[in-house]
Amino acid sequence: MYSRTYKFLATLPPILWVSLFLLLPYLMMFLHSFWAVHDGVIVHRWTFDNYATLFKNPVYVQVLFRTTRIAASVTLLSVLLGYPVAYFLSFHAGPRKEILYQLVIVPLWVSYLVRGYAWKTILGSDGVLNGFLQYLHITHGPVSALLYSPFAVVLMLMHIYTPFVFLPIYASLEHIPRPLVEASQDLGASPRKTFLRVILPLSLPGLLAGATFAFVLSLGDFLAPLLVGGPSGTMIANLVQSLFGAAYDWPLGAAISVFILVITVALLALTQRVEKHWSFE
Amino acid sequence: MTPAAPPIAASLAPGATALEVRAVSKRFGAREVLKTLSLEIIAGEFLTLLGESGSGKTTLLRLIAGFEQPTAGEIWMHGARLDTLPPYKRGVNTVFQHYALFPHLNVSENVAYGLQAAKTPKAEITMRVNDALAMVRMEEFAAAKPTRLSGGQQQRVALARALINRPELLLLDEPLSALDANLRKEMQSELKSLQREVGITFLFVTHDQEEAMALSDRIALLRNGALEQVASPREIYARPATAYAAQFIGHTNLLRADIRDGIADCGAFQFSCSRANGTAIFSLRPEAISLSADSLRIADPVRFSASIGQQIYSGATELLELQTATNLVLRARIASRAQLSASRDFVFSASDAVAVNE
Amino acid sequence: MSASTTTATRRPLLLGAYAALVFAFIYLPIVVLVLYSFNRDGVGGFPPRHFTFDWYRQLFADSAIWDSVVNSLIVAAGAVVLSLTLGLLAALALDRADFPGKSLFRRLVLLPLILPGIITGLSMLMFAVFAGFQRSLTLVFFGHGTALISVATTELFAGLQKMDRGQEEASLDLGATPWRTFWLVTLPNLKLSLIAAGLLIFTLSMDEIAVTFFLIGNENTLPLEIWGRLRRGITPEINAISTLILVVSIILIAIWYHLRTRNRHD
């Protein structure tokens, strides 16, 4: 039905553009990771040193572990918050389901920066939370440990990613045909058993998708640490940022970036395969 | 059906009441779907809830299953109230319209589901699952996933999954409606013999009156949330209580008659009738009308002439559309014969004209 | 059967309470933010006293902020046009053509969406430096437009799949050229997908920080302008602009929701 010229005209521009402005940049990042810096100049000498540094330098290793811990905490907490809400909305919200759904979605549209800033004003020594606690005489002086810590980073990211995690979980819960729930109860399974044996397994694909998304994006986040993390809350992406900035070691920065990229792609590929294996359609 | 599987005996003696629906009403918002309905289900019977969509038959089923609560009224089983129990505590199981097999479990696991919920020991589960699958002839599919099965196969698994729990009452929500015509007929006869074999009370919902007549011991005809008539198929067919029942089940001619001094006058003909004076409606089945020439010995014959409009042939019989001189339109079903002349004499027995309520 | 029937007749109170708490957690910071934009004495402390509009007045007089808003709008509008155009072509290609590297292309286009923004931003920076491009607003425009192609592609691809092919075939059958068919039949059918994608791209571009961070020159977009101020010291003026962003976001959602429900009635 469509002539070859038509198809050609449709195909060529995006491919060219994407190759030039997407493929090439990523490729350059990849190439840079194998180069080195000598006397403030990037030298095109092929080496694996950068990757070695990432895993050998104790500071980098520590940051890597901290980042993984933070990302894992964010994922776990977001799921613990997001899943019950999704379940409640899908099965128990009745006619108010649609409105409540929109209410969960609204924060997603609100600027990331705005939300991060909000936490900054809440958690600081002069912040709202401290003021509130002192006002109620629960504390008598500002608690400074709230802000500029891994705790603050986790809190902020958890706030950002709970709606993200909610979405695919809600979608997969909605996808479960209600007769299956009725059939389970009809056969003698209590609501708790029905949840564990029917609803939860069937919602796993959505759960996995949401969790992976939250983990991967938390892993590479550099803004949250800058806003609320402080020195003790630095994550690997901040290392990359400084290597491309003041510390001027593009190859090393590229190596860490590639590392993050590989982890991301690997995780996503893994979850895709698991999802397909579990696909019940 | 394999006779090897031992019958699953109902715990009640046949003839006892399995379930009682007492003055149950159900309202959805402003809409009253069931109106103060009372029904008694006899142990061991195959009872069909028959009606159009919107008649309330599925709602009644769901009330008994426990997926809805009555707005008023009670449901009793075994001398105890059923409607206050959640669905997972009732001794009732359901076969759903689209089977509702769990897609993430294979056939064995689906069938074993109810037993596992009841914490039955593993060895017993294995044995009973095998028996259940054998009963529906699905043994070789034990490890298959439901999505790989055809409609008829899924339906059998759904049956096994429900029956394995030895429920007091099995509810079937239009289980055959998703199957094509041939498969449907086959499954109808399988269902009937299965029910006889296991002896469990079946409550079957359908909108297909032929299916209801073929399968049921009794039919409960529902209309707009109320019971129109509850009787055996033969009883309902031969003596419909209302005009609606007469028309819904099979085909009929509805005759309006004025009764005066023991004679019912339909204009085109009269016959003797013992009802009081006034107007009445009579149901006359098409097969009750035959050609005068063919029927030499009929009790209480009523004769009339009519012109033949269409002759609709259907193999063994044909349907004649008749019009009398008084413009009364009737349909007669006779054994097929060659083309008839335009006008003939017809006869029916007065006892075949059954008085029905509006 | 009525779809509103529920099998659980008792609403679990514990679950409902927990859900309410989660909602509170999600909205609390936003509520605090809006509240303190009217607070005379600063962004912290409790309780807020002295209601004032002063911060909003200061905001409206703040030319640097509004310059950055204009910049953001220009970039976002440009990104919408660029992404939609390329995304439409890509969706058409994915839907109707077969070419070598098709699955690679599809995955490549999705990368900016799933990778942390810093990686995409830095990669583009490297490329820019290599090609001799200066860090600037234009570069940001290219960056957003490229990174957001996949948003357009996904949405438009879905729209194409849902479309009734028969209409295009009928058009060709009646003598219209493929070009005419595209403009008179295909595109109108994609109207809703285009609008949905456009809104989403616009919003994502307005809020984008990670990629913008590395490509921006001397002129700021709104997020970066705010970012810069955060380093210098925070005042409720930032609360005020945040509140305005919130209000605009909600309006956009309302529009999108309205469009979506209208689509469902068609």
Describe this structure in words.
The complex is a heterotrimer of chains A (281), B (358) and C (266). Chain A has 281 residues and is mainly alpha-helical. Chain A is built from 12 helices and 2 strands. In chain A, β1 and β2 form a beta hairpin. Chain B is α+β, with helices and mostly antiparallel strands and 358 residues long. Chain B is built from 8 helices and 20 strands. Chain B has a 6-stranded mixed beta sheet with strand order 6-7-8-3-9-10, sandwiched between helices. In chain B, strands 13-12-11-14-20 form a 5-stranded antiparallel beta sheet. Chain B is elongated and about 75 Å long. In chain B, 40% of the residues are buried. The radius of gyration of chain C is 23 Å and the shape is globular. Chain C starts with 12 loop residues before the first helix and ends with a helix. Chain C has a domain at 64-236: MetI-like (MetI-like fold, Orthogonal Bundle). The chains are: A mainly alpha (281), B alpha+beta (358), C mainly alpha (266). At the B-C interface, loops of B face loops of C.
Distance between the termini of chain A: 31 Å
Low-confidence stretches of chain C: 1-9
The CATH homologous superfamily of the domain at 64-236 in chain C is called MetI-like
**Cα Rg of chain A:** 24 Å
Strand order in space, largest sheet of chain A: 1-2
The oligomeric status of these chains comes to: heterotrimer
Largest interface, with Cβ-Cβ < 8 Å? A-C, 89 and 84 residues
Unreliable segments of chain A (pLDDT under 50, ≥5 consecutive)? none
User: Class of chain A in CATH?
Assistant: Mainly Alpha
Shape of chain A: globular
Structural class of chain A: mainly alpha
CATH topology of the domain at 64-236 in chain C: MetI-like fold
- Which percent band covers the strand fraction of chain C? under 5%
CATH architectural label of the domain at 64-236 in chain C? Orthogonal Bundle
- First CA to last CA of chain C: what distance? 24 Å
The structural class of chain C is mainly alpha
One letter per element, helices H and strands E, the order of chain C comes to HHHHHHHHHHHHH
Largest sheet of chain C: none
Portion in helices of chain C: over 70%
Query: So how many helices of chain A?
Result: 12
